[in-house]
Amino acid sequence: MNFDPPLVRGTLIKRYKRFLADVRLDDGVEVTAHCANPGSMKTCAEPGWGVWLSPSTNPKRKLKWTLEIVDADGVQIMVNTARPNHIVSEAISNGLVSELLGYSAMRSEVKYGENSRIDLLLSEPGQPDCYVEVKNATMAAEPGVVAFPDSVSKRAAKHMHELTAMVQAGHRAVVFFLVSRDGAESMRPASEIDPTYAQALRDAVDAGVEVLAYRLHISPESMRIEHRLPVSL
To answer: In principle, which of 53, 79, 86, 195 could form an S-S bond with 65, CB 3.0–4.6 Å?
Structure first.
């Protein structure tokens, strides 16, 4: 995925009210950017860190800027949670996820479960459908380890139960962790943040839900999936 128009660099002043971030651009102008991230952004939003913003030309938008990348003293973190579904779907379409090859059709935001929508639904005639739930993992835990989630998420736990139900109905189900932080060597559920989700993930895996984690290469010019990472449950 390429950034077009190019991103603009600045320095984070503060992130607040979950969806807002004040930023001082490199030309000295202070702006308020939309922060498309419902989590706590723990380990991802220290004042004084560098950031990269995308501009919008839509005159109807209340805020012109969107927070895309945080530069945590040289560690790049992709924090815009509106991006992962597109990044993962593009990678699957380009054959970069070997575990998800062999499907001729892919749809997004398909209704399933109890008032939910699956991020990606892969299908191929004569094969069970494959339900793919995408999660953006950014929180630094131990050195080289990224954990998910960074705040309590009842919605994420609900997704694990619904993926389990898809497996029990004869389909294939995958939770795909996009590990969006430089230097990550593995990922794990953040039991210290949300033990209910961590247990729901383990129960889902025991029931046949598959877990994939891929590291994201992040730069102000583009982002792409690199390689698979081990997951410790």
So the answer is: 53
